[in-house]
Design brief:
The chain crosses the membrane at residues 277-299. The chain is an alpha/beta fold and 397 residues long. The protein has helices spanning 24-31, 71-76, 104-118, 132-143, 161-166, 187-195, 217-224, 272-286, 291-298, 328-339, 361-373, 385-388; strands spanning 15-16, 19-20, 34-37, 44-45, 56-58, 81-84, 97-100, 123-127, 149-151, 175-179, 199-202, 236-238, 309-313, 317-322, 346-351, 379-382.
Length: 397
């Protein structure tokens, strides 16, 4: 196989309904693969369930699955061709393309990196222990003042999701905003190498994903700092926005203070949102978004999924839904938020697991249970196995 990534094209490309279109020879050149059977150009997908006729199917492999098992299904659904690391030519016809690569995950990442190399616009990479999705969503809203923004959908923020996001990047996007997640050391470095951001934001560092970084907060900090390893002198770096006086952009309540005042009303509760909004504003300032319009953009923000979502239902009932995979910091912020809400209503808390905490799993879950037991909540609903098994513990055993 060849080294790949030699393909150079102008800063423009075509899209079909599935994403960026590659010719068969382009796929082979970028991935360093062998073109066994050619086929018409098309975008690339890894999922036969959503495959569109004319797309190329890339067969990913994992610990518990092998996409090669679905190669014939992809062909039956009308794929243009398949990108595989193992193939038997017995029974294969030349109606479908075949490209043989050494490693299909690496091939996917190389294709995404190639799209990034051709994209001339700004790429914002956001990581951190908490607030990635919120900050990414707010950043997308602010940058929409410049034109269409392409950004991470849902939780597609890992070694597969980020490349898939780039493979749908329109060449005309005003900006690309990407969320970078991690479970272990080295993963942020890989993602940053693929997306080569021009603006990098670390929202915060907390005791999250401890299992993959040696079980320490210092390990988390080192893993998040991988985002900075490939930073260039012309890049913009951003960190957590807070109350510290040395920050160029900070949150403060000080009428008449020097500087530019921006009054923002975010239609969701929680002081932590102010920090996320400040980080998004900093990105907007770096990219020249007019300040007056930022407040209107942030006013369109809505919480996503089951992340600190507050709902008022029925006769005097307030439900705080934080059942998404969370961290100790985010759960404690959620509980504090509910404590600060007006009395006179029934307060119900819905909590999910805090995953990948390693040796700190017991301590963190017991801390949350202790916090819940000390508060005047009417009901605490535990919807996941890990947190439920600690519900009757007040002290670590």
């Amino acid at each position: 196989m060849r080294n790949g990534l030699q393909l150079q094209r102008p800063h423009s490309w075509s899209l079909d309904p599935g994403g960026v279109v590659f010719t068969a020879s382009d796929i082979a050149e970028v991935t360093g693969g062998e073109l066994i059977h050619s086929a018409p150009p098309g975008s690339v997908t890894t999922d036969t369930r959503t495959l569109l006729p004319g797309q190329w199917f890339l067969a990913l492999q994992g610990n518990n699955f092998d996409g090669h098992r679905f190669m014939h299904e992809a062909q039956a659904r009308g794929c243009a061709g398949v990108i595989v690391s193992a193939v038997s030519l017995t029974g294969q016809d030349e109606a479908h393309g075949i490209i043989l690569v050494d490693n299909t995950l690496q091939a996917l990442q190389r294709l995404a990196q190639n799209v990034r190399q051709r994209y001339p616009g700004p790429v914002v990479a956001i990581t951190g222990s908490c607030g990635k999705t919120t900050t990414r969503t707010m950043t997308g809203l602010i940058l929409s003042a410049l034109g269409p923004v392409h950004q991470t959908a849902g939780n597609l923020n890992n070694h597969v999701g980020l490349p898939l996001t780039l493979l749908e990047l329109p060449p005309t996007a005003a900006a690309c905003v990407l969320e970078l997640g991690m479970s272990a050391r080295g993963e942020i470095a890989v993602l940053a190498g693929i997306c080569k951001p021009t603006l990098r934001v670390i929202t915060n560092v907390a005791e999250v994903h401890l299992a993959g970084v040696g079980g320490t907060l210092a390990g988390v900090a080192e893993a998040k700092a991988e985002l900075l390893q490939t930073a260039r002198p012309s890049d913009t770096l951003g960190g957590e926005a807070g109350l510290h006086t040395h920050l160029e952009l900070r949150i403060r309540e000080a009428p008449g203070a020097p500087g530019t005042a921006l009054d923002v009303e975010v239609p969701a509760p929680g002081l932590h949102l102010a920090s996320n909004a400040a980080a998004a504003v900093a990105v907007g300032l770096a990219l020249g978004v007019p300040v007056p319009g930022m407040a209107a953009s942030l006013a369109r923000y809505q919480p996503t999924g089951m992340r600190m979502r507050v709902e008022r239902v029925g006769a005097g009932i307030t439900i705080l839904n934080d059942a998404y995979n969370a961290s100790l910091m985010s759960v404690q912020s959620a509980l504090q938020l509910l404590r600060e809400m007006p009395a006179g209503r029934r307060h119900i808390v819905v909590l999910g697991d805090m995953k990948e905490l390693g040796p700190q799993e017991l301590v963190a879950h017991v801390a949350v249970m202790r916090d819940c037991c000390c508060q005047p909540f009417d009901l605490v609903a535990l919807v996941a196995a890990a947190i439920a098994k600690y519900h009757d513990q007040k002290e670590p055993q």
